[in-house]
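Review form for a predicted model. The reviewer records the input and the model, then writes brief findings.
Reviewer: anonymous (R2)
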Amino acid sequence: MRITTQMLNEKARQTGLPINSSSLLSHLNNTASNDHLVKALNKGRDVAAAGTSRKSNYDKLEKSAEQLQKRADSLAAKGENSVYEKARESKSTEELCKEAQALAQEYNNALKILQTTPGSLNDYYAQMLRETAGGHSEALASIGISLSKDGKMTVDSEKLKAADVDTLEKVLGSSGDFTSRISFLAGRVSDNARAGAESLTSQYGSNGNLLAAMGGRYSFWG
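Model under review:
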């Protein structure tokens, strides 16, 4: 049934609602235009949803990379306040081993998010993290940290606890370059993730305003 202006006016009188009959009539009777609008709005929402998901990944990546850098810096530090000197003073490597396990966990977290977040820089940093760890695989294995084919770290806690302070410092401390390299990369990953999140916030915020404007033009009541 074709909707007429008279029918719309009668409906408006019954409901007591104002109506721009010409714009509504034109909108309802123009099926092609309506379908085009729905498709455009749905596409916009899909794109915005994808952007929101990527921003969430970038936010998680930034936090994980910051924690990775923090752990790496702690293990790379030297001097009387370093985790190694504290371990020697207390004659226990318990806290030192916790730092090493935390480093492995944050490394795995950051690597996983990098591998699941599209982007050439994310791919590059994931590769650099894997290569950095792979280049120190023998030393890491000597204290119970092994690497899988995809670069993930697995910690043998018993072997790690069995390592003495000097060995742990040689592998993870300032005398080597493993943790300093990890710290550097983690800093770059964090910066890139922050920039990516800010870019997406700006981009999809603008798209959101545009969609709102489009929706306003085609309000049901004209």
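Findings: The chain has ten helices and two strands.
Further findings: Residues 40-49, 206-222 have pLDDT under 50 and may be disordered.
Recommendation: see findings above.
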